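Here we describe the complex-level prediction in full. Unlike the single-chain runs in Section 2.1, the two entities below were treated as one system.
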Amino acid sequence: MGRYLLRRLLQLIPVFIGTTFLIYWLVWSVPGDPFAGKCGDRGCPDNFREVMTAKYHLNESIWVQYASYMKNLFQGDFGITFSGRSINDIIVTSYPNTLKLAVVALTIEAVIGLSAGVLSGLRRNGFLDNLVLVSTLFLIALPVFVVGFVLQWLFGVKWGIVTPTVSNEMRFTELILPGFVLGSASMAYIARVARTSIAENRRADYVRTAIAKGLPMRRVVGVHLLRNSLIPVVTLLGTDLGALMGGAIITEGIFGINGIGRQVLRAIVTKESATVVSIVVVLVVVYLLMNLLVDLLYAALDPRIRYE
Amino acid sequence: MRVSKRASAVALGAAVALIASGCSSSDSGGGNAGASSDGAITIDGTQPENPLVPANTTETGGGKIVDWLFTGLVEYPNNGGAPQNALAESIDTTDSKVYKIKIKKDTKFHDGTVVKAKNFVDAWNWGAYSPNGAQNSSFFADIQGFADVNTTDPDEDGPKKAPTPKVKEMSGLKVVDDWNFEVTLNAPTAVFPTKLGYSTFMPLPDAFFAGKPEEFGKKPIGNGPVKFVSWEDDVMIKLTRFDDYQLRDKMKIKDVNVKIYQDDTAAYNDLVSGNLDFQQQVPVSSLAGDKWKADLGDRAIASTTPSTGIIAFPIYDKRFTNKKLRKAISLSINRQEITDKIFFGNRKPADSWANPLTPGAKPGNCTACAFNVDEAKKLLAEAGGFTGKLTLSYNADASHKEWMEAVAQQIKTNLGIDAVATGVPTFAVFRQNINAHKMTGMYRAGWQQDYPDVENWVNPLYVTGGSSNDGLYSNPQVDALAKEATRRRASTPRTRSSLRLSP
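The structure predicted for the assembly as a whole is:
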């Protein structure tokens, strides 16, 4: 177990270097002079562009730029944006917001998705099962911005139950709606995967044995059935945290949340390599760690899986 | 010109900026906050792109806050009338070349220091000095000695760098005493006093020169009716009334909170549900079928802004040197139909060279702005037709697609030219190609007046070497007339309406 963990952690290093360079290179290859469009339709004076280009070393080769970025990164300095803001500050203020939103979304999709999946899997072809199938199909078919705008308009504007945008305090009650919107598609997938998995294991020999032993139904489902059916669901949930954080751009925009989505979008459009790489680097680390956690959870769920 | 990428979508004529207002008194405990003199309002804004230094702020987000924080020598009344003195006691000149400027005594900056003549002179010298890289440095080009403090790269984007200027101060600026200074221009320019209300010409306190500009810009100290309180990036900028303010436009309410949005639809939803008191411009999506008027009722206010959308020709491209061809294309565009169908009547078709709201603009002086298919076909035939594909480029990161495609379609239908609208992914690339004179077809442009004078619509855009004459249009007759008009005293009638420009 310890050796496995160490090996996995060591693997993070090449992945980390590879992703940072790839992303740095991608943003660098986006065509356009980042300072040409700063002054609107008037165009910027030459001296402004010269001063800024020199200040951010944009006249150097990509290798020099990347090397100096990495050097600062290992000293804990993510650099500054073209507006002169410290990227460390941006990460410190925007990451917690996105993380909060993603965790709320993950909780909502886990609770609702899992209960719907388990209930419909146990009573296949019943009314509830059909309802879950149809409603999940509907959720999967709808793009997230449609769900977002419709729910925001209904709950925020028409009925006035919540405020349409999230305040800066990021209160939990305000995050339920955006969290639901963000997690809606994954919730549908989780319900469907859980349903299939439960339905399949329902007919497995060990379930029949457990029932034949006279175990109460609650124990058969809660311990034997659920634990074995959870593996695909945990895989989905685990990788989803990263996906939710990265995919929150649209939801953050609709609900006015000050998260990483807005920063990444702005930075891509303005060709701010340092900001994009810095935010994505943290995201990559989240992905890698979540993946590791999922793999370790397999062992806890399925006694047949052991890591050496 | 203060046009953000997002707000620059103004097509073919005077745009109507849609303003929604009303004090919904959403703050708790304030009671009827809007009515009391100590009320607070929350308005929408966007994150300023740069620290708030007047000479380095060109986009809307920071620009409007700079406008509130500072008061310049002159101000522009909201009714579009002629500029009047604000901080200036008097601006005197006999030859439109040397200006003696006297400022009002004992007005204060927000940090309590007194606004003196040297605060203007130092601020202007800072803005003009090229190593400071101010976005608005070209505004000081009228002043004598500008070329000595603002050097340019000798080989454009080549390996050589611009030489460091020999001096740091323009020879045309001279402080006489605390309340008087003298400005000498390169050539007589009657419109110079009008320009002085633009934010680039604001005074800066001594504190600015003592520290770093970036740090000042995060906590700006102005001399205007509104005082800076705090700025939380991407969240909120808080402002309050400056109680020591002595000039005309003192604030009636106490606090202004500028809530920063990334999406104008989110702000609009907050506005409709009463969580936001004021949104300066409602999103395009609410224009269809006058949805915004239905949503907002008596909180909706329509107001016009002096900005015009333009489709420019790259005259450096040989295919467009023929004047008749350009006129034929212009005459084949039905501007009325586009404003009705695409903008739901919220924009007006352009029929004059300057925006109709600009003092001195003459309606109907753009004869090429009419819609006349027969004349267009005749001119096209005389010009020898147009072969190949005609591209109309726009930046695809703002809402220009619909109207540019409509224009292309009209040219195609009315003239039989193979016209297509093509989107350039980002404004940065688009602007870079325009700067480098690499456009291969017509392209979208736009102009919003910097100061209320028709001069602002002629010299930068159509005069040879004009600061924003990106298409390299050049007509000796226009140059001569514009030069003559610039020289005349501001009080005498201008002759610009006699100009006959080709599009």
